[in-house]
Amino acid sequence: MSFIARPKSDRGFRPALVALEGRALMSVSPSRLHHVAGVVHAAATTRANATITPITSPTGSSQAGGYRFLNFDGPGAGTNANTGTNINGIANDGVTVGLTIGNTPGNNNFLARPRSNRFATTTNIAGAAGASAFGVNNSGTVVGSDGINSAFTLSRGTVRTFLPNGASAATAFGINDRGVIVGQETAGQVTTGFLRVPGRNARTPAQDILVTGPGGLILVNVQGINNQGLAVGFYSNGSTTHGLIANQRSALNGTITSTAVADPTIPAVAGESGATFVFSQILGVNDRGIAVGYYGDSTGSQHGFLYNTKTAQYSFLDDPNVAFNNGVEVTQITGITNSGELTGFYSDATGAFHGFVAYR
Fold it and tell me: Percentage of residues in the chain with pLDDT exceeding 90?
């Protein structure tokens, strides 16, 4: 994924698995760059004849928790540890967005509809090898990081970068079907989440709304937003990270104060005797208020979950083909559609990552 370092408390002593995780909280303020909000980069390079590769289950199982899993690799995925496929989001029409890292460094961003066909469209920004695509909506607009401290939108082959609220660095992680973008920004020594609400017409500028953490200005990362304006993400209290929710309708004077989500009581997992909770992150939410994400435990492993924002109930779900590598296994659920289809990625026994979609 991108190369933003995850705080050590999230993963601790398993640095070998960090490479594909770009959803970390930015903990330092990069030097200020002279970007202009909305500047147009060179058009994205798109290639519609790429393909995804379905993965045959080595365990003979493709089902877990009442879901059927379709596992796959994106174009150019590597097979070494810390390489592979990272699916970061899914639109309500079933189009997934993510990236691959090959056995040589460099991101290859792409869109695919895995349940329908094996075709993929690569969506890379010309001259920005470190760019990472994180979200997509039903209109096909992709959002992410340009790899040089700005958030971007990609629509119909045109890339625009932006820095909300005069920030010095930003990443866009999600976009709903109304065009509202969410992400994280850094200004000075303060790192918060943001919502960017599009203007009503070409003459009306976008409105940027700060999202602060429960209890004040602490590190905040907003990951996803549904079409009702319910946003999800996570925050740091200085030692670890916890889930949060925020409502666009509660904005006051350009700021939303998020609400903390209670940490899950984690289940017993085979091969992880005595594991205890370390952190959690919520990454996506649908219009029914069902959110998805993952938690990390004291073994260094990560496990997927669904969270009902209306009942505050968790359920847990890992890809059935996840495997231990050096005592660590990883499943992250990164997106959910209104129909309940899930997407994300998991690790195999070699430490490589693979994407999945899961459906009932």
Answer: 76
Q: Is residue 59, in this structure, part of any structural domain at all? A: yes
CA distance 151 to 23: 13
Q: Does a structural domain hold residue 82? A: yes
- The Cβ of residue 274 has, within 10 Å, a number of other Cβ atoms equal to 8
Task: Select from 82, 23, 20 the least CA-distant residue to 280.
Answer: 23
Q: Quick one: tokens of 264? A: 């899950």
Give how far Cα 117 sits from Cα of 53, 54, 94, Å: 10, 10, 11
Per DSSP, the residues of 102-141 read -SSS-EEEEEE-TTT-SEEEEEEETT-TT-EEEEE-TT--
- Across the range 85-107, mean pLDDT stands at 94
Per-residue model confidence (pLDDT) at position 59: 75
Condensed to tens digits (0 to 9), the pLDDT of residues 255-303 reads: 999 999 999 999 999 999 999 999 999 999 999 999 999 999 999 999 9
CA distance 48 to 153: 19
Amino acid at 315: S
Which helix (H) or strand (E) element contains residue 149? none
Tens digits of per-residue pLDDT, 216-232?
A: 767 999 999 999 999 99
Number of domains observed in the structure of the chain: 1
Strand 255-257 versus strand 331-336 pairing type: unpaired
Q: Is residue 2 part of a domain?
A: no
Strand partners, 254: none
Q: Residue 183 is encoded by which pair of tokens?
A: 């992400």
DSSP secondary structure letter of residue 165: G
Query: In angstroms, rounded to a whole number, what is the distance separating the alpha carbons of residues 214 and 187?
Result: 19
pTM over 0.85: yes
pLDDT of residue 176: 98
Q: Tell me, what's the pLDDT at 66? A: 97
Compute the distance between CA of residue 358 and CA of residue 53 in angstroms, rounded to an integer.
16
Task: Give the confidence band of 46 by pLDDT, cuts at 50, 70, 90.
Answer: low
How many Cβ atoms from other residues are within 10 Å of residue 140's Cβ?
Answer: 16
Distance CA 70, CA 61 (A): 11
Asked if the structure places residue 68 within a domain, the reply is yes
We report the CATH number of the domain holding residue 243 as 2.120.10.30
Query: Domain of 340?
Result: 8-359
